[in-house]
Amino acid sequence: MHEREFWALLEEVFGRSYGRSLAHDQQLTALGSRTVVEALAAGEEPRTVWNVLCDQMDVPDAKRWGRDHDHVAPPKPFDFRG
């Protein structure tokens, strides 16, 4: 997930105003109590931030990936360091 996709999903799932408010105000416990904006600025993967936000806000899997994503979480990137 790219950051632009993150912001598009944020608006689609939470609405423009509420989503932007969450991004600036909601502290994400699993990410050191940083806000979405702070976590992204610190280099956290947008997909990780999205999952943490949705988990914390109790957004079910069927709704967290928007209308165009067949209600399935996109796969995590495979790590080839082995």
UniProtKB/TrEMBL annotation:
InterPro entries: DUF3046. Pfam families: DUF3046. It comes from the Bacteria. This is DUF3046 domain-containing protein.
